Amino acid sequence: MSDQNEQKVAKGDTISVYYTGTLDDGSIFDSNVGKEPLKFKVGSGELIKGFDEGVVGMKQGEEKDVHIAAKDAYGDKRSELVMEIPAEEFGNTEVKVGMGVSTQDGHQGRVIEVSEKEIKIDFNSELAGKDLNFKIKVAKIEKHG
After folding, report:
1. Largest Cα–Cα separation, the chain
2. Domains of the chain
């Protein structure tokens, strides 16, 4: 009988993790510590590549720090995702810098510039172009097959 704590995470396993995500300046952008663990299938593409690959080989209960380069996280900022939209398309809505907006097809963006004639909206992820750091703790491993 194998000791469950000696099992290591492999692609195809469903695992539950606790994590805290920080930027290089130490600011926290996301955490589920003290909440429900994040459950996902390793290697399924549900999460960013660097996180998905970072958990492989970990044991249940193990904690690890993972640094993820922007290219393996949300990618580089793409200029084609910054769009200028005529101000009249917003009607009487008061538009402010930092305001979140959604397109009809569900894309999320935020206002980065407001002028009388145009509203500039950035549809890049707020984390695009940034290296990310995660402290990951494996709470549970459910082996595939």
Report:
1. 71
2. 4-75+127-142 (3.10.50.40), 79-122 (2.40.10.330)
> pTM to 2 decimals?
0.79
Whole-angstrom distance, CA of residue 25 vs CA of residue 27: 6
pLDDT confidence tier of residue 1, bands split at 50, 70 and 90: very low
Q: What is the pLDDT of residues 15-65, one digit of tens each?
A: 999 999 999 999 999 999 999 999 999 999 999 999 999 999 999 999 999
Token pair 């398309």 is found at 89
- Residues ≥6 apart with Cβ < 8 Å to 86: 117, 118, 119
Tokens encoding 106: 């569900």
Question: Where would I find the H helices in the chain?
Answer: 49-54
Coil, strand or helix at 72:
helix
How many Cα neighbours within 13 Å face the side chain of 63?
Answer: 5
Picking from 38, 12, 29, 23, the residue whose alpha carbon sits closest to that of residue 138 is: 38
